[in-house]
Task: structure prediction
Amino acid sequence: MAPAPSQPPWPHCGHGTTAGDPVGCTGREVEPYTACLAHLSENLRSGYLATLAPGSDVDHRGTEFDAPLLGRLLGALHDPATGAPRLGTADFESAAFTGGLALFEEATFGGQARFEAAEFSGDAFFGSATFGGRASFRAARFDGSARFDSAEFAGEVRFDLAEFRREAWFEEAVFARDARFDSTGFRGEVRFDSATFNGDALLDLAGFARDARFGSAVFNGAALFEAATFTREAWFESATFTGEAGFGSATFSDTAWFDSATFTGEARFEATAFMGEARFEAAAFLGQARFEAAEFAGEARFDSAVFERAASVGPLVCAGRAVFSGATFGGPVTLAIAARSLVCRRTRWSSTASLQLRYATVDFGHAVFEYPLSIAAEADPFALPDGRVVDEVPLAGGAGPGVRIGTLRGVDAAHLVLADVDLSRCLLTGTVHLDQLRLEGACSFAEVPPHRRWRPVRFTARRTLAEEQHWRARHRSSVRGWDVSVLGAQDVRPASLAPVYRQLRKSFEDSKNEPGAADFYYGEMEMRRHDPQTPRAERGLLNVYWALSGYGLRALRAVSWLALATVTTLVVMMLWGLPEGDPKPVSKGTVAGSEVSLTTDTPKPVNPDSGYLERLSSDRFEKSLRVVVNSVIFRSSGQNLTTTGTYTEMLSRLTEPVLLGLAVLAVRGRVKR
Result:
């Protein structure tokens, strides 16, 4: 059973009351009469209409208008100066417009359409009104508030070229067919919250001077805002776009809210300018999401957004942060983004993905992907399919176009490829399967400060992790140059850094880059040497290994020690190792009968007793050099030596071949392929 009609809050006509309908006609009484305009007698209606003039206030709430009746009313308000009706305060709340004619456009007098550009100089109330046919307010002007909340439009609606100088409310309005707002000017606040568009919503070139609210609106047809201008905030929170959503070349001067919006069809934001913050948090893009040449002057937030079938996002330019934290990509996708910062924390990729970036510092912490994913720095500006280059002026004046990785913590790097990126400030502790990470192109790491190098030459610099830079700056305060400002580095211990270096070394070795792996082996050994949990004896051995040859990787250091040992041995031999003269064998014997018995003895070498300068002769230098050279190749020279010389030779035969071997090992580590 249908609910009984309720009494309206205004004096109403009551025509046609029955037992089942005790209210009857809800039309507002035309004072001083007791009937609405639709039910007045012809004489009384004509008398009332004769009292109206352009600019008069009218109150016909709840009244039912057919085309002839509406035509007569508007004719009474016709302004000869403008050729269109001019109304003061117009209250048509809950009115019903029937007849199927185009209201305010096709009602005619003298065969001419004279009601385009109708003027409402006061407030216009059409709340809960029903329009049974085609309704047109084309080029109308609303000087006061315009209220169409909960109105129902059964036919096509035209507000194109209309001008709303104050607020315009269409909350919960229902548009059964196309709604045209092309080139409409909204100077006041606009509300389309919870409105339903079953046809196309056409708002191309519309201008919104104040807040525009489309929260929870439903667009079952195409929603076109091409080249529209939003001067203040634009709210599309929880809106549903079943058909095409076109915002190409639109301008959002303030915050654009698309949180929790659903785009079932294609979402087009090509060349859209977001001058304020753009928020697409928890938005769902179930079709293609097109952001080619879109420009974000502030933040672009896509937190927890869902991209179900987006083949590509961008190329777009973001002068602030582009945030995709918690977003989900359901299919293969290419992200082409030029931004100051790209945040992809806990972002999930369910298929292959390619991130083509410029200028960005990337936060990739705890991102999840099970298929190959690449992050690459693009050398040249992005180009559109038609050959035009994407304008990157908003990013000028900052860091260069290179890409910097901020963190990979919590990432499973088994399917990750990095190309031409800067890892100097990248946090890698906590990264899983780092040994399977692929680095291609010119991927750079932080380097040891210049004054920490053994010699100020380029080939002695080594690549380090950002966490080591931070740790050394915190715990080696007397040494300057280490970077303590690495964001989020915390205080990672050497015991945690050694496995990271080990995995990176394996990654380089697996890619046949032995020289590149050498730096990470050096870093691993450094962390073991500085780890307080390493046994003291092992730390002592590592200190010696480091000092002599930089863990077998610093050829210059090993050669320097070898040269020092060689020169020291040479000097010791010349001063104390060679005897005063080479002892000559002496034979002694006895004759007993016909037998002769001889004994040959070599006298012990005599320590030199001449002056030190006399010992530095060329002859003694040649003999000492022969001893040293033979010691390096682990041979005995056969030279007569003093006791000091003998022990010196033994020591040199032990140390100098080791130093030579370390030097050869270091050179091999730098040139091996």
Summary: Residues 525 and 551 are 7 Å apart (CA to CA).
